[in-house]
Amino acid sequence: xxxxxxxxxxxxAFALITGLAGCAGQTxxxxxxxxxxxxxxxxxxxxxxxxxxxxxxxxxxxxxxANRNGGSVLGFGFKSAGNAKPITTIAGxxxxxxxxxxxxxxxxxxxxxxxxxxxxxxxFAEDSSGNVKPTRVVGGSKSNLGPTEGLLVDxxxxxxxxxxxxxxxxxxxxxxxxxxxxxxxxxxSNTQLDSPTGMARSASGRLYVANxxxxxxxxxxxxxHGNVAPALTIAGxxxxxxxxxxxxxxxxxxxxxxxxSVGVLVFASGASGNVAPVATITGFSxxxxxxxxxxxxxxxxxxxDNSIQEYAGNANGHxxxxxxxxGxxxxxNGPNFLALY
Length: 341
Description:
Neuraminidase, disordered N terminus
């Protein structure tokens, strides 16, 4: 049996089909391309920065995950495979982490994480490992945080937090610490937010959000605030979305959606409405994290299978992974969101 969780990610093995999470548990160029869906043209969405923060020296790259049931943040070498030990383990009483269920990295390699349904965000310095204290913590009555389930740091350094229980997205200025108020909040009936979790941001400033219980993805225009309607919504029977949890863009501008009940659904750049994915990667117990690397390979965290798997960019169906990180040495135990640095 897994460790207990306020949001239902605790369950005996026979209850997998009921769902792991109550609330649940990462860009545009100005170019335009035909979509063949009745619309003349749609905007191309591409990553705002290469992997958010990839180092030029590939040997220095790590893939990070929030290891919820292991009470840790783990980082594996980019060439790690099989039953490999993590290079980075952030865990212990000094970290303030208990069941980290969200993760983001900024361009400087700072690690942002929050506990499942928590009301604070802990920030760790680049290359942190061990039982280390966070360099700063964001949270308190003024912050309006919680229950927290998704994090994103945009290219300007602003911190965005999805509060699944409050159906709200809050934004904080770069470098803030302590009990600070958000500089922006997106919430209200017009937003269509329904247990928001993972987020990804376009270079044009569009903010994509996974609605885990709403079986949809919504995107807000740059500068959106308050009770505002999304600029686009991906929802409907054709989409195949059931429990979308984490989001990312690949280097073709396609939207990658880790869906706990389906796998990874890949949507064409600029997709909107009741559209079918261009690919669906299946065979996971619970896909709870996704990211694309510089080679456009797709990495997926499986929450129940305790694994991180790498797939070719053109993977579809029950594909064979190029690589799998799994085994007792990995200490993977409930991995979810993924980030590369």
